[in-house]
Specification:
Chain A: It comes from Roridomyces roridus. The complex is a heterodimer of chains A (537) and B (329). With 537 residues, chain A is α+β, with helices and mostly antiparallel strands. Chain A is built from 19 helices and eleven strands. Chain A has a five-stranded antiparallel beta sheet with strand order 1-2-3-5-4. A two-stranded antiparallel ribbon of chain A has the order 6-9. Chain A has a two-stranded antiparallel sheet with strand order 7-8. Chain B is built from 20 helices and no strands. The chains are: A alpha+beta (537), B mainly alpha (329).
C-alpha cells in the first residue's frame, strides 16, 4: 500500500493514520458503539503484522437501502476516498460480506460526536474556548473540502466527531456534493424543467405531519432545462432544517457558502446545546429561516458568557446573502480563530471525564443487538430481513429448475414484428426525469416526478439523531429507531453511524417508488399496459 | 492565491514546465531529491494552470484559449491521464479539475476539447484503464464521466473492445470504485439513447452475454444495480427492438423467475420489473408462453404474496395486472 510510505506533500497534510486493508479476516468485531436505521457501528480491531489497531467498523445492510440511498452511500464513499485531511473522516478499508453487508473501516473516534459529548455533560452549552477549539478544527476540514470543490451540506455538531486526543473530524459526507458535477441537464434533452420551490417543499412537508425541527430533508430540484451548465452551484435541497441556509431552502443555486451558514448555526448549537428553532416544526423552521432575521448569539443568557468577537463571527456567517459570508479560509485567518487553543486543550476541558463510548452505548444494546464476537461469528440475524424473504423460502411456490426448463426452444418465431406499443406518440409529455448523470441526477429526478410531489418530496431521516419532538428535553433529543433511554443517544460515534444510512433509509418508504429508474419503469409499463389491455380484450 | 501578481508565466510556459517535469519523476534515486523536485514542479504547475482556468471567478478568455491550444498541441491531456498515478494525492484532483474544465469549454456551439478528443481515442481508454489502479480510479473515473456526457466520446467507448472491460473492473474492485465503474457503465448505456439503441440492436449477443455476468454476479451491489439497469434499458422506448429480442428468450425468463426468488427483497423487486415485461407482452412467443403456463399456479400463488407490504399503488396495480394476465393463459 503506497500510503505506508509517508511523503511530505505540498498542499496535503501528512496522514498519520495509515490505511487498513480491504480483507475481512483482518478485523475483529467488538461492541456496538452506534446505531443507525440500517447500520450499526462497532468498535473493532484491525490486525496487521502483529499489530492490533483499534478502529470502528460501520456495518451497513445494503439490502435495506433504497436505491437513492445506495447512491448517496456511493457518493459518500467516493468523496471520502478523495479526501485526505486530518480533520476529515477517511475510509481506511472496506469490504462486503456474503449477506449483503458493507463494512467500512474508519478511525475509532472514541469520544463520539460533539453533539454526543454535549448531551452527555454539557447540555446547556460549552465554553467559548472549547467551542473555538472545536470549530477551528472543523473549519480546517471544511476549508479543505471547499478548496477541492466539495460542499459538505450537513454541517452540525452531530457530524463533528471527536477523538480522545481532542482531534475534531468532519464526518458524514453522505450528502456532500461535488461542485464540479454539472448540475444541469444537457442541452437538447427533452426533459421538462421542474422547479420546486421551498413552498412546495413546505406544503408537502405539512402533510407528512411529523413535528420535529431537526429531521433531515433531502430533496433535489433539477435546475432549468436548457440553461447553460452552471458550474460551481447546486440547487439540491439537502440538509437538516435547523442548519439549512436560506438559499438552500429556497432552492436557489448555492455553493460552499451554504456550509458557512450551517457552520454559524452549529456555533450557536454549541453555545446552547441545541440549534435555534429546534423545538419548532420543520416547516416553521424553514419558513422562519427565510422570513425572519437570522438568529444570533445571546452573549449573556446562557450557561456561559461569550465574547463580542465570537458574536461577530457568528453574525458574519449568518448573513442571508451568501456572497457576504466569509469563506472558511477567511474565518481561519480571523483573529478570533487564530487565537484558538491546540486540540489537546479539549482533553482536559471536556473529554477527560467522559466514559468510554462503548459504555455510553451499553443500555442501547437492548433490543437484540449482536453480542461481541469475531468476524467469524457474525450473525446479522438481528438486522431487519424482510419477512417476505422468509416466507418465500417456505412456500411451495418454488420454481424447480426442471419446471422452468422444460421447454422446447421454439425460437422459430422471432418477435421482431411485434408492435404493441406506439412509442413515439406520447413522447412529448413524457418528461424523463433527467437521464444519465448517475450520481447527481437521481435525487433530482426522483423529486421531479409529479408523483412524489404530492406525497412526500421530502425525505426524512427517520432515525436521525434528533428526530423526535421532545419539547421537555433541553436539547435535541435523540431518538433512534430503537427504543432507547434518552440519555443514551443513538448516533454517537466515530462515524456517522446513523447519518448516512439513516438519512437515507428514512426515505425508504417513499423512495422505492419514487426512485427515478423505477418510476420511469412504472410509467412505462403503465402506458404499455394500457396499450396492451384493449388489444387483449 | 493569485500567482500572477508575483510572477507571470504564460500558458505555454506552464504546459511545457509540466510536461518536462513528468519524465523527471523517474530520474535519480527513488525518494531522492530529483524526484521530489519533479513532483513539486508538477503540483505547482497544475495549480497555476488551474488558476488560469478558474481565475478568481472570472478567468481571462485569451489566456484560457492560449492554454487550451497549448494542451492540444502537446497532447497534455493524454500525458496527464496516463501519468496521474505518479502525481501527488492533491495534484491528482487538480488534474481532474483541469481536464474537466477544458472539456466543458464551449465556443459558441463548438466544444473544442471534445473535438480534439474525438481524434484521440487513447485518452478515453486511458481514463477507463484508471480502474486498474485503485489509487487513482476515482480521479480517472471523474474524468471518464465528464467525457461520457458527450455523445461522440461515449460512442467511441461503446463501440470499442475496451468497453467490455467494465464488468471486470466492476467485479474486481472495492465498493466505492466498483460503484464508480458501474455508474460510468450506466452512463454509457443510458445517456445517449438513440446511439445506444442502435449499438445494442447491432451487438445484441455480445452485449447481453457480457451484461448477464453482472446480473449473475456474486456481489450483491453489482447484481442489484445491473438488474435495475437492465430494467431501465429494456423499458426505454428507444430500445424497443432490443426489448422484444430480450423477452423472447426463454433463458432470460428463467433467469428472472429465479431472481424473483432471490433472498434479497430488493433483487426480487428489481427482477419483478423485468419479469413483468415478459408477461405483459401481448404477443408472447410460444416458448415464453409455455414456461409461464407451466408455472401458472405457482406464479399466481407466488405473486399474491409477493411484496404485499409495499404501499405502492402502482406496484400493486402492476402486480394485479400480471395476475390477470397469467390467469388468462
Amino acid at each position: 500500500m503506497p500510503s505506508q510510505n509517508p511523503r511530505k506533500f505540498i498542499g496535503a497534510v501528512e496522514d498519520a493514520w495509515e490505511l487498513f486493508s480491504d480483507c475481512r479476516d483482518d478485523y475483529t468485531l467488538g461492541s456496538p458503539i452506534g446505531f443507525g436505521a440500517s447500520s450499526v457501528v462497532y468498535a473493532a480491531e484491525y490486525r496487521s503484522q502483529g499489530k492490533r489497531i483499534p478502529c470502528a467498523l460501520k456495518v451497513i445492510d445494503l439490502d435495506s437501502l433504497p436505491p437513492h440511498t445506495l447512491e448517496l452511500l456511493q457518493r459518500e464513499t467516493v468523496l471520502m476516498g478523495l479526501s485526505k485531511h486530518p480533520n476529515v473522516l477517511r475510509v481506511r478499508g472496506s469490504f462486503q460480506t456474503d449477506d449483503h453487508k458493507l463494512c467500512i473501516a474508519l478511525r475509532l473516534m472514541n469520544s463520539g460526536s460533539v453533539a454526543d459529548v454535549m448531551r452527555y455533560g454539557w447540555a446547556g452549552g460549552l465554553e467559548e474556548e472549547v467551542i473555538k477549539t472545536i470549530l477551528q478544527q472543523a473549519l480546517q476540514g471544511l476549508n479543505y473540502l471547499h478548496v477541492n470543490g466539495f460542499i459538505h451540506r450537513d454541517v452540525k455538531a452531530a457530524n463533528l466527531l471527536i477523538d480522545d486526543d481532542g482531534t475534531v473530524l468532519l464526518g458524514d459526507l453522505g450528502v456532500a456534493a461535488d461542485l464540479a458535477e454539472d448540475t444541469s441537464r444537457q442541452a437538447g434533452s427533452q426533459s421538462k424543467p421542474a422547479i420546486i420551490t421551498a413552498e412546495a417543499a413546505l406544503r408537502s412537508q405539512r402533510s407528512s405531519s411529523s413535528g420535529s425541527g431537526s429531521k433531515r430533508i433531502s430533496f433535489e430540484a433539477p435546475p432549468n432545462g436548457g440553461t447553460r451548465p452552471r458550474m460551481g452551484k447546486r440547487k439540491s435541497f439537502v440538509g437538516t432544517p435547523c442548519w439549512m441556509a436560506p438559499e438552500v431552502i429556497q432552492a436557489r443555486h448555492y455553493d460552499s457558502a451554504a456550509d458557512i451558514w450551517s457552520f454559524g448555526i452549529t456555533a450557536l448549537e454549541l453555545t446552547q446545546g441545541r440549534p435555534p428553532r429546534s423545538r419548532e416544526s420543520p416547516q416553521k423552521v424553514l419558513l422562519k429561516t427565510i422570513q425572519e432575521a437570522p438568529p444570533s448569539l445571546d452573549r449573556e443568557g446562557g450557561t456561559f458568557k461569550y465574547s463580542r468577537a465570537f458574536k461577530e463571527i457568528v453574525d458574519s456567517c449568518l448573513v442571508k446573502d451568501p456572497s457576504k459570508r466569509p469563506t472558511a479560509e477567511e474565518l481561519l485567518q480571523s483573529p478570533f480563530f487564530k487565537s484558538s487553543k491546540k486540540k489537546a486543550y479539549l482533553v482536559g476541558a471536556i473529554l477527560k471525564d467522559l466514559p468510554p463510548l462503548t459504555h455510553r452505548q451499553e443500555r442501547r444494546v437492548a433490543p437484540g443487538a449482536p453480542k461481541h464476537g469475531t468476524v467469524d461469528s457474525w450473525d446479522f440475524a438481528t438486522t431487519v430481513h424482510s419477512p417476505t424473504t422468509a416466507r418465500h423460502d417456505e412456500t411451495e411456490t418454488d420454481f424447480k429448475e426442471d419446471d422452468i426448463f422444460e421447454i422446447n426452444g421454439n425460437l422459430g418465431r422471432r418477435c421482431r414484428n411485434i408492435s404493441w406499443a406506439e412509442p413515439e406518440e406520447e413522447d412529448s409529455e413524457e418528461m424523463e426525469p433527467e437521464n444519465g448523470d448517475a450520481a447527481a441526477s437521481s435525487p433530482e429526478s426522483e423529486n421531479s416526478s409529479p408523483r412524489t410531489d404530492a406525497s412526500s418530496p421530502l425525505m426524512y431521516a427517520s432515525s436521525e439523531q434528533e428526530s423526535s419532538p421532545e419539547p421537555p428535553s433541553p436539547m435535541p433529543p435523540s431518538s433512534g429507531p430503537l427504543p432507547v433511554p434518552k440519555a443514551h443517544k443513538s448516533e454517537s460515534l466515530a462515524v456517522p453511524a446513523s447519518s448516512v444510512s439513516s438519512g437515507q433509509l428514512s426515505s425508504s418508504a417513499s423512495s422505492t417508488r419514487s426512485s427515478p429508474g423505477l418510476w420511469r419503469k412504472f410509467k412505462d409499463l403503465r402506458r404499455r399496459s394500457s396499450v396492451i389491455k384493449p388489444r387483449l380484450s | 492565491m493569485n500567482f500572477f501578481k508575483t510572477k507571470q508565466r504564460t500558458p505555454p510556459d506552464l504546459v511545457r514546465g509540466l510536461r518536462d517535469a513528468i519524465p523527471r519523476l523517474d530520474h535519480g534515486a527513488p525518494g531522492g531529491e530529483v524526484r521530489r523536485k519533479a513532483a513539486e514542479d508538477i503540483s505547482k504547475n497544475l495549480q497555476q494552470i488551474k488558476g488560469i482556468l478558474y481565475g478568481d471567478g472570472d478567468p481571462l478568455p485569451e489566456l484560457v484559449a492560449q492554454l487550451a491550444q497549448e494542451t492540444y498541441n502537446t497532447d497534455l491531456l493524454h500525458h496527464l491521464v496516463v501519468n496521474i498515478a505518479r502525481f501527488e494525492f492533491e495534484a491528482r484532483k487538480d488534474v481532474v479539475q483541469i481536464f474537466n474544465n477544458l472539456l466543458r469549454r464551449q465556443i459558441g456551439a463548438r466544444w473544442p476539447t471534445v473535438e480534439y478528443l474525438t481524434g484521440k481515442h487513447e485518452v478515453i481508454f486511458a481514463a477507463l484503464a484508471g480502474y486498474e489502479n485503485e489509487e487513482v480510479a476515482l480521479n480517472t473515473g471523474m474524468i471518464l464521466k465528464e467525457m461520457l456526457r458527450h455523445e461522440q466520446l461515449s460512442k467511441i467507448l461503446l463501440y470499442s473492445d475496451q468497453f467490455y472491460k467494465f464488468p471486470h473492473y466492476i467485479e474486481t474492485t472495492t465498493f466505492g470504485i466498483s460503484c464508480d465503474a458501474f455508474a460510468n457503465l450506466k452512463e454509457t448505456l443510458t445517456r445517449h439513447k438513440p446511439m445506444v439503441a442502435e449499438y445494442l440492436d447491432k451487438n445484441y449477443d455480445r452485449f447481453f452475454s457480457s451484461f448477464t455476468t453482472l446480473i449473475l454476479s456474486n456481489n450483491y451491489v453489482t447484481k442489484r444495480q445491473s438488474l435495475k439497469l437492465l430494467g431501465e434499458i429494456l423499458l426505454d422506448r428507444a430500445n424497443f427492438n432490443v426489448m422484444t429480442k430480450y423477452i423472447a428468450n426463454e433463458a432470460n425468463l428463467k433467469m428472472m423467475m429465479n431472481l424473483l426468488r432471490d433472498k434479497s427483497k430488493n433483487i426480487q423487486f428489481e427482477a419483478f420489473h423485468v419479469f413483468k415485461v415478459f408477461v405483459a407482452n401481448p404477443k408472447k412467443p410460444p416458448q415464453i408462453e409455455t414456461i409461464l403456463r407451466r408455472n401458472k399456479d405457482k406464479l399466481l400463488a407466488f405473486l399474491k404474496t409477493f411484496h404485499n407490504d409495499k404501499e405502492d399503488e402502482q406496484f400493486s396495480d402492476e402486480k394485479q395486472f400480471l395476475i390477470v394476465q397469467i390467469q388468462g393463459l
